[in-house]
């Protein structure tokens, strides 16, 4: 308890000296939960320089944050555009801090155009592929690993699934309506035009409500895609050939 304040509360103080080795103790988002591009953060620690020009806060890919204010124990910084998720490091005249791991979201905190992402996967080249069901933005986004830039890879209505087999992703359409035939589409990681495998079910007699998809990495079901069908309470096995839509379970 602080004997001066005498309010019965417990206080913790971060104390450092001008010659302390640079070290980060915590990173806090000023706006609340989550870390996003353009958001401000408090980097607490010791060994920082009170002149911002003498400090550098950078992320995994070397992207530097914009510094707003600095003291020997705290730096207020802005997360730059396309900051790569991972670790934060501070460089000051007193040395380089140990990397502090934090996860940063791609994009803005307030972005009404991209708020219904359903599935995600990663290519062999480390790029992210994101299924987006936001109205007017039903598509697959590709997020470049090096730059963090998001661009459209394919236009698909209410996309779900996206399991990967080699360079191929497999995409379904989630729709609870009775006339959905559960088409499966094949998407190459290069974002070349989609290959439509055709209907999985029948509009009137055998509708499909696809909720998830998977591939078998063992090779025992080579070239098959498994589709979780809520309309028929079953798992369907699908291949890009005629008469190869099978009810598995």
In round numbers, the mean pLDDT is 79
The proportion of strand residues reads: 35-45%
- Count of helical regions: 0
Instruction: Walk across the major sheet and give the strand order.
Output: 1-2-5-4
Describe the structure.
The protein has a 4-stranded antiparallel β-sheet, with no helix packed on it. It has strands at residues 23-29, 40-46, 56-59, 66-70, 74-78, 86-92, 95-96, 100-102, 117-122, 128-132, 139-143, 150-155, 159-165, 168-173, 185-188, 195-196, 210-214, 225-229, 234-238, 245-247. The mean pLDDT is 79. It is an all-beta fold and 249 residues long. The chain is elongated and about 80 Å long.
Brief account:
This protein starts with 22 loop residues before the first strand and ends with a strand. It is 0% helix and 40% strand.
Identify the notable features of this structure and list them briefly.
4-stranded antiparallel sheet, 249 residues, mainly beta, 40% strand, single chain
